[in-house]
Specification:
With about 160 residues, the chain is an all-alpha fold. The chain has a domain of about 80 residues. The chain contains four helices and no strands. Helix 1 runs antiparallel to helix 2 and helix 3 runs antiparallel to helix 4. The protein is rod-shaped and about 100 Å long.
Length: about 160
């Protein structure tokens, strides 16, 4: 598709088009741009929601396992007090309860790290900034310069998320 900076909607140079044709072309381009920005934001927010769901699920699992561990520790403590010096009964419960709590701590730490990695929609923010810069100074940007800049400079998912 030809750039609308030099050619309008029907392939004619901009200088030869009427004001109405120019506004129609501008309206079409703005509508397309807004739709594309919304689609990009939906995509990025969907990815962030998946990460948040995974982190929340891991934290929920950690809480559940911690409750089971607490139950087993309480059960072991009850046997320990009741049995006094009879170590074999409550020692087994105490060991299992401790193992559950260690597992819960590991899941909780992993879930918290997953939630910390969620950041703002970087590609959308970069794309909107590039679009605004192009809208402010359309002649200073080369044809499709905004799209080229976005494709070349958008951070990937492997880039570290900003800390808050």
């Amino acid at each position: 598709m030809a750039s609308t900076r030099t050619y309008g909607g029907e392939g004619r140079p901009v200088e030869e088009q009427s004001l109405g044709e120019l506004f129609a072309t501008m309206s079409r381009d703005m509508s397309l741009l807004v739709r594309q920005e919304i689609d990009l934001a939906k995509s990025e927010l969907g990815e962030a929601a998946k990460r948040a769901g995974m982190g929340a699920g891991l934290l929920g699992g950690a809480g559940t396992i911690a409750l089971w561990g607490l139950f087993l520790l309480c059960f072991a403590a009850g046997f320990g007090v009741a049995a006094g010096a009879n170590i074999p009964i409550w020692a087994g419960f105490l060991t299992v309860g401790g193992a559950f709590l260690i597992l819960a701590a590991g899941l909780g730490a992993f879930g918290a790290l997953s939630l910390k990695k969620i950041g703002p929609p970087q590609r959308t923010m970069h794309s909107v900034k590039a679009d605004l810069a192009m809208a402010k100074h359309p002649r200073s940007t080369a044809n499709n310069g905004a799209a080229t800049a976005i494709d070349n400079t958008v951070p990937t998912d492997s880039a570290p998320a900003p800390t808050q």
